[in-house]
């Protein structure tokens, strides 16, 4: 007999399962929270490839549960499946963490290790997904249904607690801890790896306490065999055989009428699932496109508190815990008082509308975010700004162009780049510079798509030109870029928040490097003498790109800070409405959808519908993968496209829901009493009833 928690009917074994689930969910969501920025800033992929790989991984995590269920039910049983696939899971995390260490091989090695690690993680997390909750339910005796329901409430709380804490902590480990000269992705992936090891150890520690049901076959295999037999028998039958009312009836020669009727009920629900992937296509972009949007926003709250762009995902887990009781105890009862019949399918359709509204809000935010972004030059053109270090008005003329009609003043901020036509991929242009009565001609080579600063300065021989390539792309992690131009005769060593700049003399300029966003009022600047002084650079803000011109004045070095790319001026708090809307949509769509599936499925078919539900999530990620790689749209247009597509799918789903007739699976016992009695004593079917038989009406989050 299983050991019980003192004075209760709760098996001691569930303590190990709940702790295991908390650690595993911390491991998964913690790793996934920083994954997109890892692709961008560590592997240096573009945002479209990063988004595509992120969603390919997410999709694989929801394809593999079917494999895990088959292994558990047909071969190893739940316990051994969890153990073996957790080992695969741990190996994947370790490989992923090693791939994030810069000193381990080159970029190709990092990519290879990252992809292998992600594939192993997907097989691990997906494989154990259908097993852990069901295995926890197996620990209870049949008569303790109330305790089992409370267990699942605790189980889902552990899921949300792991998700919430990990999405707060791992971005801090990534950004606030520096290792190998940059963000510490090795630590951000290493801590989730350690948590997965803890999950495996804890689960194994309880092995002597678990109640284990042996594998007795998988109902999903039986359903597929029945469908296959019906199709084959239908096409192989002679024209003289009597016709059947339904194509599945052609399986009656081998399978029971009850099983065929159960499959018909399941297929009716699965048909309703066809439009559902579009919801998940929007929902899962919180970790990809929405995180990328956050990197181009102002992330400062007050004077010192700064939120990380990948930390915003914790809002979803937090709001779930708040919204579930609000919807169950307040909103749904109030709607019921208005005599509105709120059926499950109507709730799901409303959830789709809320998700579409969330992307409408994201579109409005994106339209304002991109105002600080410098658009790249079109083909055959480049971007150019002119910075004059000459004390007086200077006129600059390009052949066949009137780009700079007004004189350029000393240290005048350019404000914006002008588009210079090259009519070729690369072209050398003659530039005429006029200063007072003096005309100077210089030649500079330009390349299309690039951005440049033309520096004008004077020396003993007259006005000189220096063409410098600029970086106008905002940093992927939201931090500012800075570079230094040294107008003096001495080499300078400048330290900005731990980042070292070696600045040669005589109008030399450093490359752009990212520094932390903050006020820099006491920046160390040393000469080779060495003589040190401090520079006041002021606030280097999110997303900006700065050129700091170092001028000598009475023996002192004075900085002149120019903003080449504007700082992010849309606050990250404007993302909160879209998170509120998408979470409200999740409560109405996801939780209700699982409840609906549970109520409309025969008892031994619930695992089949669970597999179908997980596949809708997988295909939703496939949709994002295709759009990210194939559409080539501006981000705000892509958001608007997804919102429009979901509204269109919502209309189709609403029409399908209108013609759907709700059923009571318990009526099968009355229709087939003999089969019902037989199955009542059938241990295999009892086992299937337990598999994924989660009491979803507890109202807890469906964050699986």
Automatic annotation (TrEMBL):
Q: Could you cite one Gene Ontology molecular function of this protein? A: symporter activity
Provide the alphabetized UniProt keywords: Membrane, Peptide transport, Protein transport, Symport, Transmembrane, Transmembrane helix, Transport
Locate the transmembrane regions by residue number: 26-45, 51-71, 83-105, 111-132, 153-173, 185-210, 265-283, 317-337, 349-370, 608-627, 639-663
Which SUPFAM superfamilies does the UniProt entry name for this protein? MFS general substrate transporter
Look up and give the membrane topology term.
Multi-pass membrane protein
Major location, coarse class?
Answer: membrane
Any Pfam family hit: PTR2
> Which residue ranges are recorded for the region named Disordered?
672-704
User: Which Gene3D superfamilies does the UniProt entry name for this protein?
Assistant: MFS general substrate transporter like domains
GO annotation, cellular component aspect: membrane
Give its localization.
Membrane
InterPro entries from the xrefs?
MFS_trans_sf, POT_fam, PTR2_symporter_CS, SLC15A2
* Gene Ontology biological-process entries: protein transport
Membership in a protein family: Belongs to the major facilitator superfamily. Proton-dependent oligopeptide transporter (POT/PTR) (TC 2.A.17) family.
Q: What is this protein called?
A: Solute carrier family 15 member 2
Provide the species name: Parambassis ranga (Indian glassy fish)
């Amino acid at each position: 007999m299983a050991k019980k928690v003192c004075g209760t009917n709760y098996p001691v074994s569930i303590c190990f399962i709940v702790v295991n689930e908390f650690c595993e969910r911390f491991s998964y969501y913690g790793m996934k929270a920083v994954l997109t920025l890892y692709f961008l800033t560590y592997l240096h992929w573009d945002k479209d490839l990063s988004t595509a790989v992120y969603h390919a991984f997410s999709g694989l995590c929801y394809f593999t549960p079917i494999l895990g269920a088959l292994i558990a039910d047909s071969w190893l049983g739940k316990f051994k499946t969890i153990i073996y696939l957790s080992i695969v899971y741990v190996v994947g995390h370790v490989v992923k963490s090693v791939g994030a260490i810069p000193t381990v091989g080159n970029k190709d090695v990092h990519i290879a290790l990252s992809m292998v690690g992600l594939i192993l993680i997907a097989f691990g997390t997906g494989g154990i997904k259908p097993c852990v909750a069901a295995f926890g339910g197996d620990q209870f005796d049949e008569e303790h249904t109330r305790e089992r329901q409370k267990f699942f409430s605790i189980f889902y709380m552990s899921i949300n607690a792991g998700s919430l804490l990990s999405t707060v902590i791992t971005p801090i480990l990534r950004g606030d801890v520096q290792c190998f000269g940059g963000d510490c992705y090795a630590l951000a992936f290493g801590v989730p790896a350690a948590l997965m090891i803890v999950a495996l150890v804890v689960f194994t520690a309880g092995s002597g306490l678990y109640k284990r049901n042996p594998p007795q076959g998988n109902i999903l295999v039986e359903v597929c065999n029945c469908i296959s037999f019906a199709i084959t028998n239908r096409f192989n039958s002679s024209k003289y055989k009597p016709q059947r009312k339904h194509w599945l009836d052609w399986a009656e020669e081998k399978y029971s009428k009850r099983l065929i009727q159960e499959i018909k009920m399941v297929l009716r629900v699965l048909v309703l699932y066809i439009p559902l992937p579009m919801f998940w296509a929007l929902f899962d972009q919180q970790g990809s496109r929405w995180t990328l949007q956050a990197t181009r926003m102002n992330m400062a709250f007050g004077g010192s508190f700064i939120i990380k762009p990948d930390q915003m995902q914790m809002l979803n887990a937090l709001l779930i815990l708040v919204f579930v009781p609000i919807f169950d105890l307040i909103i749904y009862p109030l709607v019921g008082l208005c005599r509105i019949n709120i059926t499950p399918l109507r709730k799901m359709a409303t959830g789709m509308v809320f998700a579409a509204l969330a992307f409408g809000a994201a579109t409005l935010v994106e339209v304002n975010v991109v105002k600080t972004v410098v658009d790249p030059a079109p083909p055959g053109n480049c971007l150019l700004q002119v910075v004059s270090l000459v004390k007086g008005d200077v006129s600059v003329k390009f052949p066949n162009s009137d780009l700079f009609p007004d004189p350029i003043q000393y240290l005048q901020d350019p404000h914006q780049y002008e588009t210079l036509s090259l009519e070729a991929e690369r072209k050398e242009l003659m530039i005429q510079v006029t200063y007072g009565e003096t005309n100077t001609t210089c030649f500079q080579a330009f390349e299309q798509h690039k951005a440049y600063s033309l520096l004008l300065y004077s020396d003993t021989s007259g006005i000189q030109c220096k063409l410098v390539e600029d970086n106008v792309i905002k940093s992927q992690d939201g931090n500012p870029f800075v570079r230094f131009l040294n107008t003096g005769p001495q080499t300078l060593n400048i330290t900005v928040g731990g980042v070292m700049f070696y600045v040669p003399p005589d109008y030399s300029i450093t490359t752009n490097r990212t520094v932390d966003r903050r006020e820099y009022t006491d920046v160390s600047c040393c000469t080779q003498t060495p003589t040190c002084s401090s520079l006041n650079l002021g606030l280097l803000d999110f997303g900006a790109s700065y050129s700091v011109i170092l001028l000598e004045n009475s023996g002192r070095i004075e900085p002149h800070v120019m903003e080449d790319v504007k700082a992010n001026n849309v606050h990250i708090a404007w993302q909160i409405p879209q998170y509120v809307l998408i979470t409200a949509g999740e409560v109405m769509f996801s939780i209700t959808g699982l409840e609906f599936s549970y109520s409309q499925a025969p008892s031994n078919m619930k695992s089949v519908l669970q597999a179908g539900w997980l596949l809708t999530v997988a295909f939703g990620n496939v949709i994002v993968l295709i759009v990210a790689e194939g559409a080539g749209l501006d981000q705000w247009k892509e958001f608007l496209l997804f919102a429009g597509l979901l509204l269109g799918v919502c209309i189709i789903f609403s029409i399908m829901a209108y013609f759907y007739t709700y059923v009571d699976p318990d009526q099968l016992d009355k229709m087939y009493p003999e089969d019902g009695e037989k199955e009542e004593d059938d241990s295999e079917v009892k086992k299937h009833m337990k598999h994924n038989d989660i009491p979803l009406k507890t109202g807890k989050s469906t964050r699986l």
